[in-house]
C-alpha cells in the first residue's frame, strides 16, 4: 500500500508530464502553422500537346514530326513571362517518361517543353544517336518555338531564357545542343557520355578506340530499344531536374533518375528501312553497329560515326554553365565520362560543377538522402543561371558514399562529401598498396564461353546478387592480393595497377578488376566495374614482357582496416566481346604497386534545406525551445542516471515494482519484480496479455514506466540511457535488407551504432549463432530459421552482457528450436545473462535455468525452473516392453497411461521405452509389482511433472491477461 506522500509525489509527476505534453503539442501546432504560412505558392499549370513539324537534317530543310507537350504555369502570360526548361528523355523513352519531372518543374515556375525524340514513340524520323544535324537541330527548332511564345522570358529577339536538362541520351543532347546553340543559358547533363566510341569500345591502357573491347551487353540493349522505337529499356532514360532538399515531394523538381518507361503510340517507322534488324535506326548507324557486333572490333569509320554524336570534340564551344551529375554505379557511362566533360568545358573558361551520386544506370536513384542532395544542387543551378534567383552555386566538387541504414525505415543512407576544388580521377593524394602474387597461366575460352559475370547491364540490384553466385571462372583468371590494411582507406577516383602479360598469339584481351575482401573472405567488386584492356605485341614468355599500367574505373569506396585488396586479371566477361580462338596467356603483376586516389573532404549534412531564412530562424527557435522543455523535464532523471545502485552493481538486470498505466486508465503491468543474474537463462512466461511485451518494451527504453525502477548493472534505466549499449535485444522481430548478405547486414547495423569496429566481436557472435557459411548468402534466400539466427547474431554483436529476446523460436521447426536452445545456453557463460520471453513452455523448461511467471500484470511465481515445477502427480516408467506394459497397466483400476497430448510425450533419455502414467493414488510399488509379475522389466521409475502443469496451476487453464499492449 502506497503512503500518502508517495501518492502526492506521483500526482505531481503526472501533472508535470501533462503540462509537458500540452506544451509540446502547442509547439508542434505552432511549427505546423508556420510551415503552412511560409509554404511557397504552388501555382497550377496548363498543357498544350501537339505533333509539330520541324525542319532539320544536313540542309536544314528535311521535315520531321515531333510529339511535343508545352507545360506552362497557370499565371504565365505576356505580362508575366517565365523562364523555360527544355526537358529531354533518355534512350528508349518518350515525352511521357519525364511527365512527373515536368510537373515538378512547372510547379517551380518554369515553362517546360518536353518532346519525344525522333525515331521513338509517335515522333517520326530515324534514330541518329544525337547527331548534330538531326536530334540536335530538332532541339534548336524547339528553342525557336519557345522564343516565339509570348509567355516565355527572352534575352533578345528569338533568344529564350532556357536551361536544358536530361539524363543519358538526353544528357548527351544537352551538351551537344549547348555547343551548337549559344542561346542555351545553363545545362544539367546527367549520367551521360563524353565519347561514345570510348564508352562502347573502352580500353584502359590508353590505346585508341579502334583497339577497344566491344561492350556488347550495353550495345545490344541500345539497339534492342531502338529497334522497337517506343518501348526501350526503362533505365536507359536519364532524368530531369531536381528539387531542394527538404522541399515537399509534390513541390520539388524531378528525381535524379526517373525511369524511361515504355513509349506510347504507334511506332511511325519510316518506309523502306535499310535493315529490319536495326528497326528505326538510321542506315549508317545500323551498318556500323552490325560491323562491330559481328567482328568485335571497330573500324575507323565506325569510330568517326560515334564521335560525331559525342560532346568530346565540341566541349570548347560550350558557354552555358554546366552541372555534371554522374553515377558511381554505372557500367554504361562511368565516372570517367563526366571527368572528361568537366575538364574540356572548364578549359574554355565556362563555369562547371561536378557531382557524383551513388546511383546510375546500374544503381537507379540511389538512397533518398543521396537523391535529395542531387535535387538540391540541380534546383540551385537552374534557379541561379536560368531564373536569376539566388547566389552563384560555386564549383565545389561533391560525391557520396553508402553510409548505412536509416534508423526509421531501415533504408540505405548515403553520406555526401564536399571539397573546394575538383580533383579529377587522380584524387588529391595517392595511397600505395603492395599487391603480390606469382605469374599465373590464364585460359581464354573458345568463343568466350563460359564467361565471367561482373555485372548485368541495366540490372541494378540484380547485378549485386551475382557475388558468390557467378563470378570469375576457375582457370580463366589470375589473382594478386595485398596484406590486410592497417587503417581504413577512402578511395575516390581511379586506382592504377601495372601488369605484365605473355601470349603465344602475341595478343590478349584481359579484364582487370579490384575487389574488396573482408576478413571472412567475402569479396565485393564495387558496382561491377572492370577495366578491359587489349594488349598486342606480347612476347611468348612473361619474363620478357614489359609492364603496362592499367587505369581502373573510378570508384567511391571505403576499404576498412583489416580488409585486403585483390586484383583479378580475367580473360572473359559476359558484358564484352572476346577473341573466339582458345589460347593460354601468362599474367604477372608489374613492378609498381597498386595506387589508390584519396581526397580530404568534409561531410555534407544529409537533410539540407532551402527554406527562407526567416523560416529557418523560426524552426531553429522552435527546436531550441522544445529541447529546453525536454531538458528541464529530464534534468532530475539525468542526475540520477549517473549514479550506480551498490546493491545491483553486479546484477545484469533488476526490475523493482514496475508499473505501466496508459492514459486511458488501462493497467498493462501492475507490479513486476524480479532479477536476472550472471550465468542465468531466465524465461519470462505468461498467457497472452499478461504484460510480458510491455515489460520488455520498458526494459529496452521503448516506453516509460508509470512507476518502478529498472537497473542494469546498477544503472537506473531510462530511454536513451548509455547503459543500453550493454544490452542486446530482439524485441520487434528481425528486419534485414534482402539484397545484402547476412554479414553485410550485420556490418551495416554495427556501423549505424557508431561504436568502435573492434568492439563488434563479429566472429564470436557468428560462432555462437551457428550460421556458418550461410552468413555470406543474401538474406532474401534465408529460411525463417536462418533469419531468426541472424537476428540473434545481430543482438549478440558486441557480446552484450545482457541479451533480451522476445519469442526467439517463433516459426522455427523442431531441429531449429533445438539449435536455438543450444545457442542461448552457450551464450549464458562468462558472466553473461539471457532473458527470453516465450510461449513454448517445453522449450523454456529445457532451456532456462530460471523462470518468471506473469499473470494479469503481476508475478505469480519466480525462481529456478525445478522449484516452480515442484512435485509430480505423474510417474515415468522405463520398461523393457512398452506395448506389453501398456496392456498390463490398462487393466489396473484408476491407473491411466497418458497419451502424448496429455503429457506423455517425453520419452526417457536415449530411447522410446518409456510410459508416463497417472497412478491416481495407486501405490507406485503396486504398479511395479504388477509389471514384474507379467514378466516386464522395470528399469527406472521417475516422478514426472512438466512446467506446463505448474504454469496452468499458477495461472488457471482459462486465464486471460490484462490485455498487454
Automatic annotation (TrEMBL):
Composition-biased stretches, type Low complexity, lie in 236-250
Domain ABC transporter positions: 653-881
Membrane spanning stretches? 610-633
InterPro entries according to UniProt: AAA+_ATPase, AB_hydrolase_fold, ABC_transporter-like_ATP-bd, ABC_transporter-like_CS, Galactose-bd-like_sf, P-loop_NTPase, Xaa-Pro-like_dom, Xaa-Pro_dipept_C
Provide the residue span(s) of the region labelled Disordered. 236-274
Q: Which UniProt keywords apply?
A: ATP-binding, Hydrolase, Membrane, Nucleotide-binding, Transmembrane, Transmembrane helix, Transport
GO MF terms listed in the record are:
ATP binding; ATP hydrolysis activity; dipeptidyl-peptidase activity
PROSITE patterns documented for this protein: ABC_TRANSPORTER_1 (PS00211), ABC_TRANSPORTER_2 (PS50893)
* UniProt record similarity statement: Belongs to the ABC transporter superfamily.
Q: What is this protein called?
A: ABC-2 type transport system ATP-binding protein
Amino acid at each position: 500500500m502506497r503512503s500518502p506522500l508517495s501518492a502526492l509525489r506521483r500526482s505531481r509527476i503526472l501533472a508535470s508530464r501533462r503540462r509537458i505534453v500540452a506544451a509540446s503539442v502547442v509547439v508542434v501546432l505552432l511549427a505546423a502553422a508556420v510551415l503552412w504560412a511560409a509554404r511557397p505558392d504552388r501555382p497550377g499549370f496548363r498543357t498544350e500537346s501537339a505533333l509539330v513539324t520541324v525542319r532539320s537534317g544536313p540542309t536544314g530543310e528535311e521535315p520531321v514530326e515531333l510529339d511535343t507537350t508545352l507545360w506552362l504555369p497557370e499565371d504565365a502570360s505576356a505580362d508575366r513571362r517565365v523562364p523555360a526548361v527544355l526537358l529531354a528523355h533518355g534512350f528508349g523513352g518518350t515525352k511521357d517518361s519525364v511527365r512527373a519531372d515536368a510537373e515538378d518543374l512547372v510547379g517551380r515556375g518554369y515553362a517546360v517543353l518536353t518532346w519525344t525524340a525522333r525515331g521513338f514513340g509517335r515522333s517520326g524520323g530515324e534514330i541518329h544517336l544525337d547527331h548534330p544535324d538531326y536530334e540536335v537541330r530538332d532541339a534548336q527548332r524547339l528553342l525557336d518555338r519557345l522564343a516565339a511564345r509570348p509567355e516565355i522570358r527572352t534575352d533578345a529577339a528569338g533568344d529564350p531564357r532556357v536551361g536544358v536538362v536530361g539524363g543519358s541520351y538526353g544528357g548527351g543532347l544537352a551538351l551537344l545542343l549547348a555547343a551548337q546553340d549559344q542561346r542555351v543559358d545553363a545545362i544539367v547533363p546527367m549520367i551521360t557520355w563524353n565519347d561514345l566510341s570510348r564508352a562502347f569500345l573502352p580500353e584502359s591502357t590508353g590505346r585508341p578506340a579502334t583497339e577497344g573491347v566491344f561492350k556488347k551487353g550495353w550495345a545490344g540493349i541500345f539497339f534492342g530499344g531502338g529497334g522497337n522505337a517506343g518501348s526501350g529499356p526503362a533505365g536507359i532514360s536519364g532524368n530531369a531536374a531536381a528539387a531542394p532538399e527538404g522541399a515537399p515531394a509534390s513541390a520539388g523538381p524531378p528525381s535524379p533518375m526517373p525511369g524511361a518507361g515504355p513509349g506510347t503510340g504507334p511506332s511511325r517507322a519510316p518506309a523502306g528501312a535499310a535493315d529490319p534488324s536495326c528497326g528505326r535506326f538510321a542506315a549508317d548507324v545500323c551498318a556500323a553497329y552490325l560491323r562491330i557486333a559481328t567482328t568485335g572490333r571497330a573500324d575507323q569509320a565506325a569510330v568517326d560515326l560515334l564521335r560525331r554524336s559525342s560532346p568530346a570534340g565540341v566541349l570548347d564551344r560550350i558557354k552555358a554553365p554546366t552541372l555534371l551529375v554522374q553515377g558511381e554505379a554505372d557500367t554504361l557511362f562511368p565516372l570517367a565520362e563526366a571527368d572528361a566533360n568537366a575538364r574540356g568545358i572548364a578549359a574554355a573558361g565556362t563555369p562547371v560543377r561536378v557531382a557524383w551520386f551513388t546511383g546510375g544506370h546500374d544503381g537507379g536513384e540511389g538512397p533518398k538522402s543521396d537523391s535529395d542532395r542531387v535535387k538540391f544542387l540541380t534546383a540551385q543551378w537552374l534557379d541561379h543561371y536560368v531564373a536569376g534567383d539566388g547566389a552563384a552555386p560555386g564549383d565545389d566538387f561533391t560525391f557520396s558514399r553508402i553510409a548505412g541504414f536509416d534508423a526509421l525505415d531501415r533504408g540505405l543512407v548515403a553520406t555526401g562529401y564536399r571539397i573546394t576544388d575538383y580533383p579529377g580521377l587522380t584524387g588529391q593524394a595517392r595511397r600505395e598498396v603492395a599487391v603480390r602474387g606469382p605469374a599465373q597461366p590464364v585460359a581464354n575460352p573458345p568463343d568466350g564461353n563460359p564467361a565471367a559475370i561482373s555485372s548485368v547491364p541495366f540490372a541494378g540490384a540484380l547485378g549485386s546478387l551475382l557475388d558468390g553466385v557467378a563470378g570469375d571462372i576457375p582457370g580463366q583468371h589470375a589473382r594478386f592480393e595485398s596484406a590486410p590494411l592497417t587503417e581504413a582507406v577512402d578511395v575516390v577516383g581511379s586506382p592504377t595497377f601495372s601488369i605484365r602479360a605473355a601470349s603465344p598469339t602475341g595478343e590478349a584481351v584481359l579484364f582487370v578488376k579490384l575487389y574488396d575482401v573482408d576478413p571472412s573472405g567475402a569479396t565485393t567488386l564495387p558496382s561491377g566495374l572492370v577495366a578491359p584492356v587489349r594488349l598486342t605485341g606480347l612476347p611468348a614468355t612473361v619474363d620478357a614482357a614489359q609492364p603496362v599500367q592499367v587505369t581502373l574505373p573510378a570508384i567511391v569506396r571505403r576499404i576498412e582496416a583489416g580488409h585486403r585488396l585483390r586484383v583479378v586479371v580475367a580473360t572473359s566477361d559476359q558484358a564484352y566481346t572476346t577473341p573466339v580462338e582458345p589460347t593460354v596467356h601468362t599474367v604477372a603483376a608489374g613492378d609498381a604497386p597498386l595506387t589508390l586516389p584519396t581526397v580530404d573532404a568534409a561531410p555534407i549534412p544529409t537533410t539540407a534545406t532551402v527554406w527562407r531564412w526567416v523560416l529557418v530562424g523560426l524552426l531553429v527557435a522552435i527546436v531550441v525551445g522544445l529541447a529546453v522543455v525536454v531538458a528541464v523535464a529530464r534534468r532530475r532523471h539525468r542526475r540520477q542516471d549517473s549514479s550506480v545502485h551498490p546493491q545491483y552493481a553486479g546484477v545484469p538486470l533488476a526490475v523493482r515494482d514496475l508499473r505501466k498505466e496508459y492514459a486511458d486508465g488501462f493497467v498493462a503491468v501492475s507490479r513486476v519484480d524480479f532479477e536476472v543474474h550472471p550465468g542465468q537463462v531466465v524465461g519470462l512466461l505468461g498467457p497472452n496479455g499478461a504484460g510480458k511485451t510491455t515489460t520488455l518494451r520498458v526494459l529496452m527504453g521503448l516506453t516509460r514506466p508509470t512507476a518502478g525502477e529498472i537497473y542494469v548493472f546498477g544503472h537506473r534505466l531510462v530511454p536513451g540511457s548509455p547503459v543500453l549499449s550493454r544490452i542486446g535485444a530482439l524485441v520487434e522481430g528481425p528486419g534485414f535488407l534482402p539484397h545484402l548478405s547476412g554479414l553485410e547486414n550485420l556490418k551495416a547495423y554495427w556501423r549505424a551504432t557508431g561504436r568502435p569496429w573492434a568492439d563488434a566481436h563479429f566472429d564470436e557472435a557468428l560462432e555462437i549463432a551457428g550460421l556458418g557459411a550461410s552468413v555470406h548468402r543474401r538474406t532474401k534466400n534465408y529460411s525463417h530459421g536462418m533469419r531468426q539466427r541472424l537476428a540473434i547474431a545481430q543482438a549478440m554483436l558486441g557480446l552484450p552482457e545482457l541479451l533480451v529476446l522476445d519469442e526467439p523460436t517463433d516459426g522455427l521447426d523442431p531441429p531449429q528450436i533445438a539449435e536455438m536452445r543450444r545457442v542461448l545456453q552457450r551464450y549464458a557463460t562468462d558472466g553473461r545473462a539471457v532473458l527470453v520471453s516465450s510461449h513454448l513452455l517445453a522449450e523454456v523448461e529445457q532451456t532456462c535455468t530460471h523462470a518468471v511467471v506473469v499473470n494479469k500484470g503481476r508475478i505469480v511465481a519466480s525462481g529456478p525452473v525445478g522449484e516452480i515445477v515442484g512435485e509430480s502427480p505423474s510417474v515415468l516408467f522405463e520398461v523393457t516392453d512398452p506395448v506389453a506394459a501398456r496392456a498390463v497397466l490398462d487393466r489396473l483400476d484408476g491407473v491411466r497411461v497418458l497419451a502424448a497430448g496429455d503429457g506423455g510425450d517425453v520419452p526417457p533419455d536415449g530411447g522410446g521405452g518409456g510410459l508416463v502414467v497417472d497412478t491416481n493414488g495407486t501405490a507406485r510399488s503396486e504398479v511395479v509389482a504388477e509389471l514384474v509379475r507379467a514378466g516386464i522389466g522395470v528399469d527406472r521409475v521417475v516422478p514426472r511433472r512438466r512446467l506446463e502443469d505448474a504454469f496452468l496451476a499458477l495461472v488457471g487453464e482459462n486465464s486471460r491477461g490484462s490485455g498487454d499492449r
